[in-house]
Amino acid sequence: MRIISGTHKGRRITAPKNLPVRPTKDMAKEALFNILSNRYYFEELKVLDLFAGTGNMSFEFASRGCKEITSVDDHAGCISFIADKAKEWEFLIATRRMDVFKFLDKAHEKYDLIFADPPYDISDEEFDLIHKLVFEKDMLLQDGILIIEHAKRTDLSHLDFFTTVRKYGNSRFTFFEAKK
Length: 180
Description:
Elements: H1 26-37, E1 46-50, H2 56-63, E2 68-73, H3 76-89, E3 93-97, H4 100-106, E4 111-116, H5 124-136, E5 140-151, E6 162-168, E7 171-177
Parallel strand pairs: 1-2, 1-4, 2-3, 4-5
Antiparallel strand pairs: 5-7, 6-7
């Protein structure tokens, strides 16, 4: 894994081997950020990274200038790794060790972009629950988007506010947007 662009472009992210993660591949991440860079000024974004794992996506947002990033994961090792690297690299990333579904249920903040990369083996009901909680809790700011990464076998196009799905190898990014 590496940071694709920004102040820390090219920096390798070498996570401990004992973390239960499946990081987004560099090719897929680069394609996603090309889409986002045509739409947003990263310096203005408030980002929520759910199932943050290694912090791969959070670090990419931070390197591109995002000042408000919250990374949520329930694994202590993942959160510790993200917090340590954020401090070392002087990134402004708030970390929360918490079950993502409990975090979403209790959340009161709004974000420009919410990125969720749950384990590919979660149930369809859990994928739907991520979407349901984000939209029921009105967690997106005006023109905000929810992006859920998932395996190609999962189809989320039936959910409200669906806009598009992008395919990169075995990964899919499904986009949702509530126009306000």
